Amino acid sequence: MDPILIVKDLSKKYNDFHLRNINFELKKGSITGFIGENGAGKSTAIQSILNIIDYDSGEILFNGESFQKNRNDLKKRIGYMGDNNKFYDDVKLKVILNFVKDTYAEYWDDEFSKYLINNLFKLNLDKKIKELSKGMRAKFFLTLAMSHNPDLLILDEPTSGLDPVVRSHLLEVLSDIANKKGTTIFFSSHITEDIEKIAQKIIYIDNGSILLDEEKNKISNRFKKISIDRINSQQIKRIKEIGILIQDHIVVDQELLKKHNINNVSLENVVLDEILLLLKK
User: Fold this and answer.
1) Cys staple from 235: which of 127, 132, 186, 231, with CB 3.0 to 4.6 Å?
2) What is the C-alpha separation between 80 and 48, in angstroms, rounded?
3) What is the pTM of this model?
4) Contact at 8 Å (CB) between 27 and 184?
5) Rounded Cα distance, 87 and 85, in Å
């Protein structure tokens, strides 16, 4: 199956930051977590992909077509929720909804939109933006992003600042949409727990460069940790050179263990946070 989105050598340079020739692909119907600390380049990459900001070089293909050449047509098949979802605080939700509905008229799914509003998120359209909690704002913006049944849903920190209950609910909704509608979801976050919950693939960006781009199940098989209580001092020294010591364990890439002929050690599973610390090293 052809990828729905291909990003080739995407670069964007600011005075104090450089997005360096990033490359990745998204499979149709997949959920990909785009993870990194605040300031790592997640939003810059997403806004470059969507042409919200101009990028310096690279190529973006959406459904096999150049995004730059057919930006207006292709953009209607993408749903987006992020920092650029800004509306006047005194405007009622129903006014904003009708405006977005008119914009995506040929693709708008009234039945699905009403289901999201009335059944799933229980939104009061007579309320104004300023009257909504963070959680209800997130649900409303997600409704706007999903109501035209996009092929690709791009979310920039959708769960940031939300309480755990609301976060969990939104993640369940995203997982359900991907499974039932075949929507491709690409969401950025610095919350590793959210990524681990629903993503099938993880892309890790740090200081403008991609350090990891792999299926989640392969990541869990590739990276392990070794308790220092179960190895001798010589082994500890050798393994620390290729891994990272976190409390009483050394986190390591199994490929490097093989490369350095380190065998017969007891391996344990690691969490994503520990893997990211190793990659950042």
Assistant:
1) 231
2) 13
3) 0.92
4) yes
5) 7
The confidence band for 23, taking pLDDT boundaries of 50, 70 and 90, is very high
Q: Which residue in the block uniquely carries the two structure tokens 């490369």? A: 259
**Sheet (strand 244-246) strand order:** 223-227, 249-253, 244-246
- At residue 134, the pLDDT reads 87
Q: Using the CB atoms, write b or e for 190-216: b if 16+ within 10 Å.
A: eebebbbbbbebbbbbbebebbbbeeb
DSSP notation for 236-259: HHHHHHHSEEETTEEEEEHHHHHH
Hey, how many other C-beta atoms are within 10 angstroms of the C-beta on 114?
A: 12
SS3 category, 18? strand
**Window from 155-164, 246-255, 271-280 with minimum mean pLDDT:** 155-164
How many C-beta atoms surround the C-beta of residue 24 within 10 A? 19
Tokens for 171, please give them: 């993640």
| DSSP 3-state of 110 | helix
Task: State residue 67's pLDDT score.
Answer: 75
Q: How far apart are CA 93 and CA 100, in angstroms?
A: 11
- Dihedrals φ, ψ of 110, to 5°? -60, -40
Task: Dump pLDDT digits (tens) for 179-219.
Answer: 989 999 999 988 899 999 999 999 999 999 999 999 999 99
Residue 1 pLDDT greater than 70, yes or no: no
Given a contact cutoff of 8 angstroms between Cβ atoms, the answer to whether 187 and 178 are in contact is no
CB atoms within 10 A of CB 186: 24
Residue with tokens 């990194």: 36
